[in-house]
Amino acid sequence: MQISGHVAIVTGGASGLGAATARRLAAEGAKVGILDFDADRAAEVAREIGGHAVKTDVGLEASVAEAVAEVTATLGAPRISVSCAGIGLAARVVGRDGGLSSELFEKTIRVNLMGSYYVMSHAAREMMALDPLESGERGVVINTASVAYEDGQIGQVAYSASKGGIAAMCLPAAREMAKQGVRVMAIAPGLFNTPMMEGLPQETVDGIVANIPFPHRLGLPEEYAQLVTQICESAYLNGTVIRLDAAVRLPQR
C-alpha cells in the first residue's frame, strides 16, 4: 500500500517512537491523527505535521472509540493504525519487603495490551468499511511489542506479559481479518533512545549499550518509523512479529 493520500492513526504520537512515526508518515503524504494522553505535546506535533491531535487514554475503550471517531470525522477513515502508546513500569512479583505488585501488573496490561487491542479493534472496523485498493488491501494495523516479550528481565513480569500478549495476538488477528483485506503486524523494538531512556544516568545508559552487538548504540526512533513505512508498503508482510533490536538479547537484570 502506498502511504500518500491515506489517513493514519498513531497512538503515543506526542513523543518517542510515536512522534517519529507520525512525522515519517506525514512526510510520506499521509494525513495523521495523533492519539496521546499528553494533549499539549500531541497538539504541537500535529501542528508541525499538519495532522489532528486527540487527547486519548488508550486504556479506556470509550476514550479510544471517541478518538477514532473524531479522527475519522475530521480526516477520514484510517487505512493505517500504529499503536506506540505504552508504559514501562517495573516491579518484582513479590518485593523484598513482601509486598505484591498486582496493581502495577493490572495497569500495565490495561494500557499496553488492552490499549493496543482497543485501538486495533476500532481502527480495523473503520478500515473494513472502506473500498479495497487495487491490491485488495483495506488497511494495515501495526502494534508495538518489545524484545522483552521473549527475554524479559527481572522486574519486567508485567511489561513482558503485556508485550507478549501483543505479539501473541498478531497472527490470529491477521488470520481473522484476512478476508477483509486488513493486515496485522507487530514490531518488537530493542533498546531505543526514547524519553524513558533519556531520563536515565549516562552510566546506566552506557551499561545498556554495552550489551548491544551491532550497531553498538541505542536504536533511533526514526529507524522504528522507517520500518513502519516499509510494513505499510510491503503487502506480503502479514501476521508476523519483527524484532528491531541490533541482535541484542536482554540479560536477566
TrEMBL record:
Keyword Oxidoreductase attached: yes
SUPFAM superfamilies per the UniProt record, alphabetical: NAD(P)-binding Rossmann-fold domains
Any single Pfam family the record assigns to this protein: adh_short
GO molecular function per UniProt: oxidoreductase activity
Transmembrane segments: none
Keywords, comma-separated and alphabetical: Oxidoreductase
UniProt record similarity statement: Belongs to the short-chain dehydrogenases/reductases (SDR) family.
Protein name in UniProt: NAD(P)-dependent dehydrogenase (Short-subunit alcohol dehydrogenase family)
